[in-house]
C-alpha cells in the first residue's frame, strides 16, 4: 500500500512596508463585492428573465448566506493561527506553512489578517530575522488593533528587541517611549525593564542602567531564571563599565548562580538573550 505523499510546506516571502496595507485593501474590496455585488447581480438577473420571486427577499437571503460563508472562512482561519505556541517551539516550518496558507485566504476579516501577521512577526523574531521582524511589526502597528492591546504591546516589545539587536538606538528609543505611554501587564513591564537596560548599554548610559538598582533587582527576581540571569549580566556589564567594581563583582556572582557557563557566555557575547516571550497567547 502506497504511503500518501505529505503536502509540501509553504513559505511566506519577504514582507514589505506596504504589503499588509495592500492585503487589507483587497480584503475590503472583495467583501464589498460579495456582500453588495452578488445580491444586486441576482436582482438584475431576475428582472431580466422576468422571474417572480421577491427581489428584496432574495437579496436578504443571499446576503445572509454570504455573511455565513465569510464568517465560517474567518473562523477557520482564526482557529488555524490562534494557538501556535507549541508549533512555534517544535515545528517552525509547519507553523510558517500554516501562516502562509491562511494569508492566501480571500477575503479575511481585518482582525484575523492582523492576528496572522502578528504570528508571522513572532515567528520571524524567534528565527532572529530581525529585519523582517521590524518590517512586519511596523506594518501591523500602522493599523489600529481593536480590543487587542496585549497584542499591540507584544508587537512593540518585539520591535524594540529587534531594533536593539540591529543597533538601531533611535528606533528603540521611540519604541520604548511608546511602551512607556501604555499601561503594561507585569510580564510586559519586566520585559520592558530588560529592554530599557539593554538600550542604556547600547548608547553608553551605564550609570542610568544601574540607577535604582534595588528596585531593578527586585523586578528581575520576578523573571524566569534565564531572563533573571541575563538581567544580572546586563547590570554587571553596566557596573563594570562605570567603574563600580564591588557592585559589578556582586552582580557577576549572582548571574553565575542563575546561569550555566554556556548561558552566561552567550549573554556576554551577544547581550541578545530574548526578553520577549516567543509567543503571546491572546
List its traits.
282 residues
Explain this structure.
The chain is mainly alpha-helical. The chain has a domain at 192-282. The protein contains 14 helices and no strands. Helix 4 (92-103) runs antiparallel to helix 5 (110-126). It is elongated.
Class from secondary-structure proportions: mainly alpha
Instruction: Please compute the radius of gyration using only Cα atoms.
Output: 25 Å
What is the H-and-E element order? HHHHHHHHHHHHHH
Q: Share of helix among residues? A: over 70%
Average pLDDT score: 83
Percent of residues in beta strands?
Answer: under 5%
Q: Which geometry do the CA atoms define?
A: elongated
Number of strands: 0
Biggest sheet features: none
What's the helix count?
14
Distance between the termini: 43 Å
What are the low-pLDDT stretches, counting only 5+ consecutive residues below 50?
A: none
Quick recap:
With 282 residues, the protein is mainly α. 73% of the residues lie in helices and 0% in strands.
List the helices and strands and how they pair.
Layout lengths: L18 H30 L6 H28 L2 H6 L1 H12 L6 H17 L3 H12 L7 H17 L3 H12 L5 H18 L2 H4 L3 H8 L4 H17 L3 H14 L2 H10 L12
Amino acid at each position: 500500500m502506497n504511503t500518501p505523499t505529505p503536502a509540501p510546506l509553504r513559505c511566506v516571502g519577504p514582507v514589505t512596508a506596504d504589503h499588509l496595507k495592500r492585503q487589507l485593501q483587497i480584503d475590503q474590496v472583495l467583501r464589498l463585492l460579495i456582500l453588495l455585488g452578488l445580491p444586486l447581480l441576482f436582482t438584475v438577473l431576475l428582472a431580466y428573465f422576468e422571474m417572480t420571486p421577491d427581489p428584496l427577499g432574495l437579496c436578504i437571503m443571499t446576503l445572509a448566506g454570504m455573511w455565513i460563508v465569510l464568517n465560517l472562512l474567518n473562523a477557520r482561519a482564526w482557529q488555524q493561527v490562534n494557538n501556535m505556541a507549541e508549533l512555534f517551539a517544535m515545528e517552525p516550518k509547519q507553523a510558517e506553512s500554516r501562516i502562509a496558507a491562511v494569508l492566501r485566504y480571500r477575503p479575511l476579516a481585518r482582525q484575523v489578517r492582523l492576528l496572522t501577521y502578528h504570528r508571522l512577526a513572532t515567528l520571524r523574531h524567534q528565527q532572529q530575522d530581525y529585519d523582517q521582524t521590524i518590517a512586519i511589526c511596523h506594518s501591523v502597528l500602522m493599523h489600529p488593533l481593536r480590543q487587542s492591546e496585549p497584542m499591540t504591546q507584544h508587537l512593540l516589545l518585539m520591535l524594540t528587541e529587534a531594533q536593539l539587536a540591529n543597533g538601531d538606538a533611535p528606533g528603540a528609543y521611540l519604541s520604548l517611549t511608546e511602551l512607556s505611554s501604555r499601561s503594561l501587564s507585569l510580564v510586559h513591564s519586566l520585559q520592558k525593564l530588560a529592554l530599557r537596560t539593554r538600550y542604556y548599554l547600547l548608547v553608553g548610559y551605564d550609570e542610568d542602567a544601574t540607577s535604582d538598582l534595588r528596585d531593578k533587582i527586585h523586578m528581575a527576581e520576578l523573571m524566569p531564571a534565564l531572563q533573571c540571569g541575563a538581567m544580572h549580566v546586563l547590570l554587571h556589564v553596566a557596573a563594570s563599565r562605570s567603574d563600580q567594581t564591588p557592585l559589578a563583582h556582586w552582580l557577576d556572582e549572582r548571574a553565575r548562580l542563575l546561569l550555566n557557563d554556556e548561558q552566561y557566555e552567550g549573554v556576554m557575547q551577544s547581550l541578545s538573550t530574548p526578553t520577549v516571550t516567543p509567543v503571546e497567547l491572546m
